[in-house]
Structure formats: structure tokens, C-alpha cells
Amino acid sequence: PDWKERDAPVRTPVKEDKFLYLTENHSIQVPHAFIPKYVRNEGNYLISLSELTRWLGEQAEELGVDIFPGFAASEILYNEQGGVRGVATGDFGLDKAGEPTDQFTRGIELVGNQTVFA
């Protein structure tokens, strides 16, 4: 609710909408009155998704959330009851054939009370 005070990267309000019906050679603008309100962008903003995601990550980390960007999960880890307890990352330092190189590092298990898949 206080994203403006927290300086979220949301700064460019939408000024107008245009809905066009496209044919092979022409376009016809649909009158605003025929556009349902839930499709209109009134009150919305244009954003950079990468900037917003970076900002949201910073906000989450300030609240104590651990974020691991750049680590692809290769396996879901389950507890004894069948619930998700975390993920395991893939091994690093494998060659094209999947064989370990001198840079090989075993993947790690990331476990926690909450696991978010995105």
C-alpha cells in the first residue's frame, strides 16, 4: 500500500488507451464506449518488469526472505508427509556430456518453511 513512499519503480501513468481491430491491410479503432472497464488501463502504470522485480526482491530481503536468483532448481524435495520442504540445485561444473570437470561443485539443498516456485 505504501509503494509510492518506498520509491517503487512505478512512475509512468498510462495516458490513453487505443484498441484496434486489425485486418490484413487496415486497422479500425474501437470506440472507447465499447471497451469493457476491466480491459481499460485507467489508473495503471507502465513499468519495467525487471526493475519492479528487483525492487520487490529488495523489499522481501528487508523482511528477512532469502532469495536465490540464478540457481535453477533441479529437484523438488519432499518431507515424510509428502509436502514440499525445499529444492535442490543442479550440480555445477559439468561438461557437455554431463561429466564432472575440475570446476565441479555438487548442488545444494535449499529447505525452508515456505518454498515459492516462480
Largest sheet: 3 strands, antiparallel
What percent of residues are in strands?
A: 25-35%
Q: In one word, what is the shape?
A: elongated
Uncertain segments: none
Radius of gyration using CA atoms only: 23 Å
Give the number of DSSP strands. Answer: 9
The end-to-end distance, rounded to whole angstroms, is: 23 Å
Strand order of the largest sheet: 5-6-9
- What's the SSE pattern? EEEEHEEEEE
Helix/strand/pairing category: alpha+beta
Count of alpha/pi helices: 1
Task: Average the pLDDT over all residues and give the rounded result.
Answer: 91
What is the helical fraction, as a range of percent? 10-25%
Question: What does this molecule look like?
Answer:
This protein has 118 residues and is an alpha+beta fold. The protein has 1 helix and 9 strands. The strands form 4 sheets. It has a 3-stranded antiparallel β-sheet with strand order 5-6-9, with no helix packed on it. Strands 1-4 form a two-stranded antiparallel ribbon. It has a two-stranded antiparallel sheet with strand order 2-3. Strand 2 and strand 3 form a beta hairpin. The longest helix has 14 residues. The radius of gyration is 23 Å and the shape is elongated. The mean pLDDT is 91.
